[in-house]
Amino acid sequence: MALRRGGLLGNLICGQCGQKFSLEEQVWKCSCGGLLDIQFQPAFPLEKIKKRKPTMWRYREAIPISADQDIISFEEGFTPLLPVNFNGKKAWLKQDHLFPTGSYKDRGSSVLMSKVKELGIQKVVEDSSGNAGCSIAAYGVKGGIQSDIFVPQSTSPGKLAQIESYGASLKKIPGSREDTARAVWNAAQKDYYASHSWNPFFFHGTKTFAFEVWEQLGWKAPDTVIVPVGNGTLLLGTWLGFGELLDAGMIRETPRIIGVQAALCAPLVKAFREGSKKIPSIHPRETLAEGIAIAEPVRGEQIVEAVKKSGGGFIAVDDEEIKASLLWTFRRGFYIEPTSAATVAGVFKYLEGADPEEIIVSVLTGHGLKATEKILKILRESYSGQ
Ligand SMILES: Cc1ncc(COP(=O)(O)O)c(C=O)c1O
Ligand SMILES: [Zn+2]
Question: What is the pTM of this model?
Answer without folding.
Answer: 0.96
